[in-house]
Amino acid sequence: MLKQKDLLGLYELSAEEILSVLAEGAKLKAALRKGKKQFSDLAGKSVVTLFYENSTRTRCSFDLAAKNLGANVVNLGVATSSVQKGETLIDTGKTLDAQQNDYMILRHPVAGAPRLLAKTVKAHVINAGDGMNEHPTQALLDFLTMQERFGSIKGLTVAIMGDISHSRVAKSNLYGLKKLGAEVRLFAPSTLMPFGLDRMGAKICRTREEAVEGADVVMGLRIQLERQHAGAFPSLGEYAKYYGVNETVMKYAKKDAIVMHPAPVNRGVELTTALIDGEQSYIEDQIFSGLAVRMAVFKALA
Ligand code: NCD
Q: What's the CA-to-centroid distance between 294 and ligand 1, angstroms?
C-alpha cells in the first residue's frame, strides 16, 4: 500500500513502500508466468493514459496492466485531442476528472507536470516519465528484475552508463537503489553528467572500467538526442567507441553480471548488439517486469 494518492517519483517513497510494491509485483509476475491474465482488482474503475511524448513499452504496459486488472481504459491520443487547440494540462485534467476517471497516467516533456496534474484532479496520477526528472515505474520494474535475479537489491553494485544528464530513468534508479542499500555508480561523458548526483549518494566514475569493475548490474541508457543541444560528443560512432558498453568493458564486471537497458536502444551506440541479444541481457525480462510492476502500482494506490 502507498500512503500517497499519486505515484510521482521514488524520491518521495520509503524503502518499505518500494519493497511492498516489489513484493506484490513478484507475486503478479509469477501468476502472469503461469498464464493468468485476468484479475478483478480494478473492476469498475476507469483509467486514462495521457502521453505527451512518444512511447511503445510504457504506454502499452500501463494499458495492459489496467486491462488485466479489469479496468476500463482510454488512451487519449494527445496528437488528436484538444491539446492541439491549446487546452492547458489543468483543463484537460479537469475534463478527465469530470468523466470520473480513477487513474490518470501522464507522460510529459516538462519536469513536474504530473505533480501539477495531481494537485488539480481527484484521480490517482501516475508519472510515466516527466522530462528529465523521474520515471518511477521504470525504476520499479528494473528493481523487480534485479531482485528476482539476485534475491535482494541490498549490497548490489549497479553501474549506470550513458546520457545521465537527460535521463529520468537514471534519477529514479539512483533514488530508489540508494534507499534499498545498493551502490550506484554513474558514468557518462563529462558533458552528459549533471552536477550534484554525488550528493544523492552516487559514485561518479571517470572511466568505463572504474564504473563496471566488480558490478552486478550494468545498465545502459539511451542517448536522448531529442533533449540534447548539439556538441555533447563528436558523433555517435565516437560515443560508441569511447563511452559505450562492449564485451571488453563487460569483462570488468562480475562473472554473473547482467546487462540492462530501459529501451528503446540505439543498437551499437550505448550497448553493442552482441550484448543486447546475449546471454547476460535482461532487457526482455525488464519489459515483463514492467507489466507486473504496473499492475502492482495500480493495486498499491487503489
Ligand atoms: C525511457 C524513457 O522514456 O524515459 N524509456 C522507457 O520508458 N522505456 C528511456 C528512454 O526513452 O531512453
A: 15
